[in-house]
Task: inverse folding
């Protein structure tokens, strides 16, 4: 199959242009979300020339001696003023938005249940919940939705995800990960998504509530002694309210060497250039937390 660059490039063509193997391209796509190929009607992934430039940018940064995390941060900084590639909004997401716009909690819940049963948890999170939350954020930011619509819809989604977590069966002795929003961070849904993904891979999870005190996070770690702690910041507010927050978290990590500390979220990436991690690792994906590739084929 030959392609026109204006219509899309096959992975083998992208491989020739970038010097990257097909396996590396797919891994970077799935693990870091670097590129967003479309699907041809025959199932082949089709990449754009912008995707090629993105991959070449990462290659140049890596060749200059930057780690993958440093290269990703530099790329995100360059792209911060550019619109990100966006997939078409699905009918399921549009239907959920319609219910949320008129405060129809029962209708929202019914559609969420249908989506969960229809797709299964993994695809439900990636194909419905994550695009839905992106749309809600954009509607609120543009003024198309007011705060009440955003809040009520988000609460229904959050409660539904929490219920799934509570009903998730895991064998006794499964390893434990504790998930916490940072102080002053009230957006819980990205954290619950990550914890559900962890549960699908055999991890018990505990989630602290929104905006916990730093002392509460420390007390939880000391009491339950999780193998891993994931700290989530969807916004940069935690760092704006407390410029010493990361150093304080590092001190907590030093006191609890048996727990691996991870931190992630868009609010973290915006401030990463100012951070000096020692014990805490910045995570760009679930794969960074578990040192595995969690992408789908």
Result:
């Amino acid at each position: 199959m030959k392609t026109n660059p204006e219509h899309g490039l096959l992975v083998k063509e992208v491989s020739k242009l970038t010097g990257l193997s097909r396996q590396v391209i797919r891994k970077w796509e799935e693990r870091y979300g670097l590129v967003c190929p479309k699907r041809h009607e025959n199932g082949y992934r089709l990449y754009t020339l912008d995707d090629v430039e993105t991959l070449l940018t990462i290659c140049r940064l890596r060749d200059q001696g930057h780690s993958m995390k440093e290269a990703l941060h530099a790329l995100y900084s360059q792209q911060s003023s550019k619109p990100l590639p966006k997939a078409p909004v699905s009918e399921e997401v549009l239907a959920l938005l319609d219910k949320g716009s008129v405060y129809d909690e029962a209708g929202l819940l019914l559609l969420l249940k249908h989506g969960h049963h229809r797709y299964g948890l993994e695809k439900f999170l990636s194909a419905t919940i994550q695009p839905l939350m992106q749309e809600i954020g954009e509607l609120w930011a543009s003024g198309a939705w007011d705060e009440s619509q955003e809040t009520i819809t988000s609460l229904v989604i959050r409660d539904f995800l929490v219920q799934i977590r509570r009903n998730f069966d895991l064998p006794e002795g499964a390893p434990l990960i504790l998930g916490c929003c940072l102080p002053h961070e009230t957006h819980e849904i990205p954290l619950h998504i990550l914890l559900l993904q962890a549960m699908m891979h055999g991890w018990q999870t505990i989630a602290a509530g929104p905006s916990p005190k730093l002392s509460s996070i420390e007390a939880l770690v000391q009491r339950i002694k999780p193998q891993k702690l994931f700290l989530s910041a969807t916004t940069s507010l935690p760092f704006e309210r407390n410029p010493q927050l990361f150093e304080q978290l590092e001190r907590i990590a030093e006191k609890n060497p048996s727990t691996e500390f991870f931190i992630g979220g868009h609010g973290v990436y915006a401030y990463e250039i100012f951070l000096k991690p020692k014990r805490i690792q910045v995570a760009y994906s679930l794969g960074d937390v578990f040192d595995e590739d969690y992408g789908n084929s």
